[in-house]
Design a protein that fits this description.
This protein is an alpha/beta fold. It is built from 16 helices and 17 strands. Helix 10 packs antiparallel against helix 11. About 35% of the residues are buried.
């Protein structure tokens, strides 16, 4: 029995040990498989002048890359420079990406291009590439006032230091490209003298200085993008997606600058549509303009499709309240959803980050929506004030149709000045002059009024009776 007990213990220990070895082998195999998994790379072009289209495609590409767990972003750069404000927005966007960021200077990275390069983790060069000359100038190409120039240069150098910490000589190199009065030395060797701006070829950027010897600026030289990706991840060990600036990014550059106007005209057209019977050109026009707003914000990399869906639900609720289930509750909820969706579409939220409702995120979108709303109100009042009475506009201000005499609110509430308001029309009968779904127009004693049914609908020509009056029209019922 003692022998069997010992044998049993031995077999048990062997089984446990074998189990640990098996689990260990499986874990090792999983780790090895993970290591063999191809790296995911997204290449984003930074070409021509640094302007809004470059920002839009960068922001959109980065957000998609974050959602898809991309490993590496490569900026395929060939630019003579551009706008500083766009440059800072691009640097801010690059800082959101958790993986590796690489600039590949395909030909040149001048001025703003050099600053953007400094914001990435690594800088690679094509064999004949050039980087440098990042001093600020006026948009027209002229010189900036000396005092203002000193302030801008000081700020730029501080920004460069903040994004270049722990990256060798990068901060000093980019500063020497910005400040013409700076002397740049490593040891006793003068890299740049005062009175000139630093520019570097690929070979100069790769030259090593100091102890231990460190390249001046570059991480490496690659003959083309494929060579670069092979150096980064190994041949065949990556999958790559190359983005391109499309016509939509270029169009969005101009449309985003008139966003408040698009919102204002779109809301005005929808309001006019709600105030007139049927559904026609005003409703279609309003929806199209607001769709353009959502399209431009999506193209600008600010939002996905969710805000547009949110807006559509809100619009449907308002429509249901006005035409099927009156009561204002659905209209208020729908209006709030529409307002929130417009702000949401312009807010710069990033994937996998907690939602931040700080002033920096919401001030711009709220300002645009408020300006658009005010524009809609002003344009509507201008229509009522300056356009001729009668026709469509007469329906909107509820004027009488017979004799062209305007009625305003008096037309809603009753006839002459000596008659009691409201009570005079209650109980009177008339006929629907338009379809009531449930809102439309009725004719009573030779005058037209805005009216609505509490329940159901009625075709034009149906006999009706007034049951109540309000500030914006009559409530009627169909006479059976």
């Amino acid at each position: 029995m003692h022998l069997y007990a010992v044998s049993g213990k031995f077999i048990g220990l062997f089984t446990v040990a074998f189990g640990f070895l098996t689990v260990g082998n499986l874990c090792a195999q999983e780790e090895a498989a993970a290591e063999r998994k191809p790296a995911r790379v997204v290449v984003i072009p930074v070409r021509e002048q640094i302007a809004k289209p470059e920002l839009f495609i960068l922001r959109r590409g980065l957000k998609e890359a974050i959602e898809q767990n991309v490993d590496t972003i490569v900026l395929d750069m060939e630019t003579p420079g551009g706008a500083l404000d766009v440059t800072f927005d691009m640097l801010k966007a690059l800082n959101k990406f958790p993986g590796k960021t690489v600039t590949y200077i395909n030909s040149e990275a001048i001025s703003a291009g050099a600053l953007i390069s400094a914001g990435t983790d690594e800088i690679y060069f094509a064999p004949d590439a050039v980087i440098g000359a990042a001093a600020p100038v006026m948009a027209t190409g002229g010189e900036i006032d000396a005092t203002m120039l000193a302030k801008i240069v000081s700020y730029l150098k501080a920004r460069v230091r903040s994004i270049s910490e722990g990256k060798g000589y990068r901060g000093q190199v980019i500063s020497a490209m910005i400040d013409i009065d700076m002397e740049f030395k490593i040891g006793e060797e003068v890299i740049k003298s005062k009175g000139e701006l630093l520019s570097l070829t690929a070979q100069e950027a790769m030259k090593k200085y100091g102890e231990p010897a460190t390249p001046l600026l570059g991480k490496g030289i690659a003959k083309d993008l494929d060579d670069l990706l092979n150096q980064l991840h190994g041949a065949g060990n990556y999958s790559v997606v190359k983005l391109e600036i499309t016509w939509s990014e270029k169009l969005a550059q101009y449309l985003t600058s008139v966003t408040p106007l698009l919102i204002g005209v779109g809301l005005l057209l929808l309001f006019v549509e709600f105030k007139t019977p049927g559904f026609g050109v005003f409703g279609v026009g309003g929806i199209v303009l607001l769709a353009v707003v959502f399209f431009t914000q999506y193209t600008a990399g600010l939002s996905g499709h969710e805000p547009a869906l949110f807006f559509a639900i809100g619009l449907i609720l308002v429509f249901v309240d006005l035409f099927f289930i009156p009561g204002l509750i659905l209209a208020m909820v729908g209006g709030l959803m529409m307002f929130v969706s417009l702000v949401w579409s312009m807010a710069d939220f990033w994937p996998k980050e907690p939602l931040s409702f700080s002033g920096d995120v919401l001030v711009g979108p709220l300002t645009n929506v408020m300006i658009g709303t005010v524009l809609a109100v002003v344009m509507f009042l201008a229509i009522l004030r300056f356009l001729p009475r009668g026709g469509l506009w007469g329906k909107m201000v509820l004027e009488g149709a017979v004799g062209g005499e305007p009625g305003g609110l008096r037309a809603i509430l009753g006839g002459g000045a000596d008659e009691p308001r409201g009570a005079v029309l209650i109980g009177r009968t008339g006929v629907a002059t338009t379809d009531l779904y449930p809102s439309g127009q009725v004719e009573i004693s030779g005058r037209r009024y805005e009216a609505k049914l509490l329940l159901g609908s009625a075709a034009a020509g149906a006999p009706v009776r007034v049951t109540a009056t309000g500030d914006f029209g009559l409530t009627v019922e169909v006479i059976s």
